[in-house]
Amino acid sequence: MATEIEQRAPIRSKPVMRRRGLPFQARIVVLTLAGGFPALLTAFLLLHDAPIADSVHRLIVVLLVGAWVGFAIAVHKATVEPLRSIANLLEALRGGDYAIRGRHARKGDALGDIVLESNRLGATLRSQRFEALEASALLNKVLAEIDVAVFAFDRIVEPDDGERRVVVLGEPRHHPLATEAARLAESVVRRVLGRAA
Length: 197
What we know:
Layout lengths: L23 H26 L4 H41 L15 H36 L4 E3 L14 E3 L6 H21 L1
Antiparallel strand pairs: 1-2
Helix pairs in contact: 1-2, 2-3
C-alpha cells in the first residue's frame, strides 16, 4: 500500500487589473455631482423666470452651487475615509499587528459590518498567535526539563533528496551518544517506512 505525498502549489492571487477610467474616489464625486445636476438645473430655470433683483439672483446661484459641491465633497469623505481606514486595518493585520482595531463598528451598516468583521478577524488571529506562543513556550520548557532525547520526523514534507530526517530535540542532543542514537533511530524509521511503502 503506497502512500503518496501531495505536493500543493502555493496559493497566488491574480495580479490586480487596473481599471480604465476614473479612480474610485473621483467616480464617487462625479456620480454625486451628476445626481444633483438635474435639481440644480431645475432651480436655475425657475430662478431665471423669478422677479428678483440681479444681486439676489447671483447670491442664490452661488449658494446652490456651493451646496451642490459641498455635499459632493461630504459624500466623498463619508465614503473614502472609512475605506482607507479599513485598508490600513487590513494592512496592519497582514503585518502581524493584531492589536489595532477599526472604529465605528456598527451592525446593520455596510461599512460598519466590514469593520466589525475585520476586528473579529484581528481578535481571532491574536488569540491564535497567543495560543501558539504558549504552546511553544510549554514545549520548550518540557524539552528543557526532560533528561532524554526526543526524536521527531516529519512524514509530510521531505527534503529535496527524498530522505526523511530524524531530528533530536532536547538537551541530550549535545551528548556524544545523541548522534549515534539519532543514526539508530533514523535506520529504524527507514525500515518501518520501507515496510509501509
